[in-house]
Design a protein that fits this description.
The chain has 229 residues and is α/β, with parallel strands linked by helices. Helices cover 26% and strands 24% of the residues. The protein has a single domain, classed as Rossmann fold, CATH 3.40.50. The protein is globular.
Length: 229
């Protein structure tokens, strides 16, 4: 399917929900869903009116099985954890944002000697950690769920200390021809799809440094001198 043959209806608003640019274009209509793309940051996203409700999101998340002691899940998370740990000073203080019901990544980072707070709007909703600042924030398999990624990233940037890291893991979208059949798109709670170029674009706009140490992982560093824990 192509956007030309199956043009989506216009979304609410006329700006990219990721970067705020007005360079949005119809991308694809598939299985009753309308997708748009941004010519600036290269993100693809579901039309805002078609996002799932909070109740539907929560019901879907209850089917996730990500136990903190599952070796396969830990290997999956190590794709982000390993390069992040290489960049952290001993005893760094972090936040696992969107930790889910089984915060395996937080456990891994704590085992490496770091302090990790938890926040999740469904499973760890205490907002107290959002009033602190951190040497690092992890966001694994979360950004694709953001209904307002522009605001979410603005919040996260404000929580990172100078010299600190925002570590994001999400399945990068790379091939428009395969988007319709892509398993990641078919998850009803996935509403935004990023490319490595998306994070590089965002970092450039923020004045941050961006590294992509592995596919599906972006490490964004705030400028400044890293402080203590």
């Amino acid at each position: 399917m192509t956007a030309a043959a199956n043009s989506p209806v216009a979304p609410a608003g006329d700006a990219c929900p990721v970067c705020g640019a007005a360079a949005i274009e119809p991308f694809l209509h598939v299985e009753g869903r309308d997708y748009w793309c941004c010519a600036e940051c290269e993100a693809r996203y579901l039309a805002p009116a078609q996002r799932p409700s909070r109740d539907d999101e929560f019901a879907h998340y209850l089917h996730h099985e990500n136990a903190p002691d599952d070796p396969r899940y830990r290997r999956f998370l190590s794709k982000l954890a390993d390069p992040l740990l290489e960049r952290l000073a001993p005893g760094a203080r972090g936040l696992d944002y969107g930790c889910g019901p089984g915060p395996a990544l937080a456990a891994m980072l704590r085992e490496a000697g770091h302090e990790v707070a938890l926040y999740d709007p469904f499973f760890a909703p205490d907002p107290a950690p959002l009033s602190e600042t951190y040497n690092f924030i992890t966001c694994t398999e979360v950004a694709e769920h953001f209904h307002d990624p522009y605001a979410e990233f603005a919040r996260l940037r404000g929580l990172v200390r100078p010299g600190g890291w925002l570590a994001v893991m999400t399945c990068f979208q790379t091939d428009d021809a395969r988007f319709a059949a892509w398993h990641y798109r078919k998850d009803p709670t996935h509403v935004v799809f990023y490319r490595a170029a998306t994070f590089r674009y965002l970092a450039q706009g923020w004045g941050w440094h961006c590294e992509v140490p592995a596919k599906d992982v972006a490490l964004l560093q705030r400028p400044g001198t890293q402080g203590g824990a």
